[in-house]
Amino acid sequence: MRLFFREHLLLISFQLVQFFVFFLIFWLDGYHHISVFLYAVFIGLCLLASYLFYHYISRRSFYKRLENGLSSPDESLEKTGSAPTAAALHALLKSQYQLYMTALQRAEKRQEEHLEFIDRWVHQIKTPLSVIELTAQNLDEPESSNIREETERMRHSLNTVLYNARLRTIEQDFQIKPVLLAKTVQAVNTENKRFYIRNRVYPRFKEQHPGITVESDEKWLFFILDQLVQNAVKYSAGRSSSIDITIYERDGSAILEVKDWGIGIPPEDRRRIFHKFFTGSNGRKYRESTGMGLYLVNEVCHYLGHQLEVETEVNEGSIFRIVFSPSQNLTSM
Fold first, then answer.
1. Three-state SS letters, 125-155
2. Between 15 and 304, where is the model more confident?
């Protein structure tokens, strides 16, 4: 309604000015019968009101649509009425929608091509890394250990790049199924065996009772735990010789916990640890930090429906918990 009056405010003002000018002309010409003039003005106002009323009723849906806007792109295909202006607006929105969908399809195609390229590139790079590792085994120490250490870092960085690229299409990339948490922990510990030895930080695995199973994606859950373990070991090296990986239940929810006794997270950084590319004061001390690990962990947990809890104190360590809701805890069902 307000848009309608704003559009016709000039017409209403012009009509009132026109009535005043006519009155002034007749008055100056010596015609002083005000009652006749007021009757003419009344007739004119009635005609004007009738026109405005018909114009608003016939285009009410058009004005409402302009005032409310669109909540989704598909709404631009809905008709707004049969009036010429409404029909022109519908044609404009339809052509804009078609242009938008064309541009969106092109962007999605480029994104898929980029993701496919990253996926293939990462797997191609992993092959020469494996060859380098095999070659390094025949070298003398400490050259052999140094080379394998660097290849492990490269492999971990490549996995981060790969999972970051896959995060864009995670809705189509994960498969929810029963996952035995102890098996995932074992796989992560096996993958990081040399990483533990190199940093002299070793995992201590505890399980409340065997067989705790949850609904999750095995591949993405492995990535989450691997990132948490890597951080725990990296920030504990030189301060503690162990980290704790614990599986237990709390209020019907399964918990996968990673605890370390490392440097902890400063209070001023805690609100931003899940932000993309945020490294904080700890990241500036450890140049290997990219600021992507915890960001990806938080995003993946969100998509999988898992909660992520954090407890940390400076110089006392950190605790990261993956909380599986009671509906995802198959053990307690």
1. HHHHHHHHHHHHCCCCCCHHHHHHHHHHHHH
2. 304
